[in-house]
Amino acid sequence: MVLGAATDDSDYEDSTWEEELAGPAGDMADKEDAEPVTGRPRSQRVNSLFSEDELIEDYYNAPPANGGSVWSDNSPSPRPPAPTFSSSSPGTLSDSMEGTATAQLSPTIKAGWLDKNPPQGSYIYQRRWVKLDADYLRYFDGEKDPYSKRFIPVSSISRITSIGDQKFEVITNNRNFVFRAESDVDRNEWIRTLQQIVEERKSKALERTSISLTINGATDLVDKSGFLELRGFKHKLFVVVAGDKVFLYKNAEDYRLGIGITYIEMNLGNVKEVDRRGFDLTTPYRIFSFSADSDQEKEEWVEAMQQSISEALSNSEVAERIWLVESNRFCADCGSPKPDWASINLCVVICKRCAGEHRGLGPGITKVRSLKMDRKVWTEELIELFHQIGNAVANQFWAANVPPSEAITPTSSSQERRHFLIAKYREGKYRRYHPLFGNQEELNRALCAAVTTSDLAETQALLFCGAAVNCATGDPQCPTPLALAEKSGQRLQMEFLLHNKTSEMPRLEVGGSEEKPYSVPLPSVTHNGFLYKTPSMAKPVSERKGQEEFSRRWCTLQDGILSYYENDRNAVPNGEIKVEEIVCLVNNSPHTHGIESTFEVYIETERLYLFGLESPDSAREWLKSIAKSFVHPRAEELLALDFERIGRLHYKGGLNLERAKEGWFALAGSVLHVCFEDSERQEPLQLRKLQELSIQGDNEVLVLVERRRTLYIQGERKLDFLGWVHAIQKAAGSSGDTLSEQQLTESDVPLLVDRCIDYITQCGLTSEGIYRKSGQNSKTTSLLEMLRRDARSVRLKEGEHQVDDVANTLKRFFRDLGDGLFTRQWGQDWLRATALEDEEAKISEYRRLLGTLPTVNRATLKALINHLFRVQRFSAENQMNTHNLAIVFGPTLFQTDGKDYKAGRVVEDLISHYVKIFNVNDQEMKKQQDEIMAIMKMREAASSGTQQAGDFICTVYLEEKKTEAEQHVKIPATMTAEELTFEILDRRKIVMKEKDYWSCFEVNEREEAERPLHYSEKVLPILHCLGTESYLVVKKQMSMENMLIYLASRVGDCKHGMMKFREERNLLGLGLSTGFHDRYFILNSTCLRLYKEVRSHKPEKEWPVRNLKVYLGIKKKLRPPTCWGFTVFYENEKHEKQQWYLCCDTQADLREWFATFLHVQNGGALWPSETSKVRASRSQQDSRLGNISLIPLRGNESEMRSSVAAFATDPLTLLRNV
Ligand SMILES: [Zn+2]
User: Fold this and answer.
1) Where are the compositionally biased (Polar residues) regions (predicted)?
2) Which pick of 171, 1102, 1113, 1116 has the fewest CB atoms within 10 Å?
3) pTM
């Protein structure tokens, strides 16, 4: 329904009653709809559309002679005395605003057609669609009208009475509304329902007298109000912008009564300036053309409405979901309606004013976040936690004993609030004490028990009655309550514990604490004492400073300033550092300088201060105090770490690489902990597991590549950045000679071991005397040194490295390993196990011992024995059977001199019983065997020269992934998906019939998605990119027929429409996505564009089509709203990746989008017109290309990429280089 021209141009004042009846659909102000309360007889019938205006006028004084409606504000007629509003008057604004705020949440309770009483003087009843929800009785022209003609707050209804003839009357303080139902039954049903809702409302209002705000208090909720002209309306309307809605009232009086015409949900709105004073509010249903009194006014209105739109778009999801629980709809502390803030550790929803005071309590007591603005904080778990705990459960504990004299209301002053909140949360004065209160051990024990159950209330009570959140559980597997909760699968307990990791226990403080200034954004830390100090520097401290270079200074940390004085009697400091200027704090390792403990303070202006202390304990106190004083409260989690370096840095990462953000970083051991912007949690980055660590530019950007994520840390300032770079590089390398100190793979095997095993597997399985023959000593030494220094950067290449050198390197690594592979503690037990005569008993003893090894040792042992198991399979060629291998590896792994035969026995047993001891399943075995077979075939081929060395053998499935359907296919560099498909079909003697669209699919098991390869796509590059969770399968493409029909029938080659969009958590694994959202998409031949909505002018996002990979399907874990979805991968030229999801409403829609994607990406053809040609030419092509060197299977990613890319584009260019 869009406002028609007729409506726009109508002269309402002159329109006759009859005309109006049949009038345009666009009018919203209803004919008069209420009987005057006074019952004073109506003097005259009014023929204006706005007869009700007349009515109001009528109510207060006689209608003007012309019968017109004069209800503008500047009416000369005497105004009635302003109605008085007691604070508990049900019709007050506050109630109406509260009601509207939750209107969206309120489902319709009853709806139906009713006749509304005729306007004054008429006898014709008006048929209206009447809707009742918990907040409003509204009526509409029609069933589908989005905008009512009237809304009457339920809270303003005082009575409903039956008045005969199927009629009933809805009575409010000021107006009565008469409706007529079609039958007595219907009428009685309406009366009953209305009465019930009104009763419920009243009892609720009694429970919370606090809702009734004064008018002043409530105006907080209104962003802008005043008179505006609305096209189609003779008189100005009173318009109110409040939160995410715009309300239309006939006049200010109606506004105060709460009875309005309609309200507009701004999540669908769009505001556009039209001329000097005019602007349009556009919704999908109607255009509201407003005109303000001045251009200044207009700008204010436009701004207010635009803000309302952004609020509507931002708040809807989280706030509404939190408010689903009744108790969360009112501030936990003062009872204000519509609270849109929360304390995420206390799990209470609070109003803005209380939130301000909460903040003053400090993050140790309460962590304040907005439901609307801090969206990223709101994970599924946290929202669920607010459903489970929320205001109801929280207050049962925190507000169990509040004396009425101390309770606060929405009108309380900020001082009253502060007093109350300090008593409630800081002192815990009104708590319901846990029976175990005061008994620390019992509390802790009870906490460990509670977190394994779903009883969150118990955990809350224990935690805030003194149980230690990090208490020792006595269970080495799960040392903390958090680990216990995790083991028990109690996600919400985990969430609750996490948010309270740094919470302070409530305690009664001695005197005067309430008068502290709470407005400081950073916790005010006070610390003082003597420190040794050197003059500040502009360069990194590269040399050891002797004790004589330090001077003793009296230092104080107070009110955000670190000052140093000549001595403790001086009043004037020698100098000072503002904590807000501190960017980094470094804890040097002991004895770095001539004073035992030293630390460095870096400030924004590229200077550093070196301080020292003889006592490590005092130094630690200083470090903690300084860190606490400058680290942003949102990064407070970092303070609990035993960091060697902490500070803020600029970074880029995730989906938005345009803007650098500020994050807080702490380095502890080999883990870099990061608090990203907008993120609540700190994220640990395992530096030893990085795939890449490099510096770009002239020491400008540090690039950290983890599996599936890339983080760019920027050198905003040189001094502290260089320090970070060195520290991170050091932490990312091996730190010692034990296993766990090495750089590791994802599966916890030292990278060094992985590299060597890989190389031997590729090149040395058949090498005679492998592991027995010694390599060149000098080469082994230097290789081991290189690998130990940074295995990440070492690539072992055939030709460059000799098999025996590598084998020897691996052996030497194990022989020199600190603590040994079997550990000193358990080594003897392993050796003793060989004495067990019963085979089964021995195996189970090995298995038990395996379980006692540290994770890294266990993973490494398995990788090594697996490797040796493979090696002995080739003993016919390499002469190394299990026994021979055991002789070599026994003394190496047990680091014995070779005289203890038991060491060899252990290794021999481990290899012989590899499958049993390591619990290897058939599938795993099969896969390994296949891999070996493929490698062997390849090598055989290479050495005999009968086959192309460039061929790569891979497993392809027919129709589905199962062993019987496996085919091992040699993939030449030139092979296309179509050729591969034929190859498989040929082998299985399957004849391709017409309209059997056999294709090759790439299936990604992890994403539960698949992608049909385009027939012309080269397979080899795809194989190289396949992860371990992916495989190729040849099967029929069921939707091809339909896609072809669709493409043939459509006009133009783009597609647009709505789809549901969801972003993957960003690349750093942070910022949980909040689900699927409707977005508008346009796909043309070059780009896919995303718009917030249909009418948006600027795309919110835009991706070049060539950089997209579109998969059918979405993993179930993400709970896609329909079963027709895509998973889309995006990768730009810099190899930065994104991943997101799209969902269509129907299968046809999905097919059309997918067809369009394929069409655009492949320049038209989806299916080859003449398949036979391709088949015929294949053999010819092969011979033409001849021998192509093996694509390096190892090598860094970009090397692989460029060589694969070269293949994919033009195989001939590569040939020229051969
Ligand atoms: Zn409040």
Assistant:
1) 84-101
2) 1116
3) 0.41
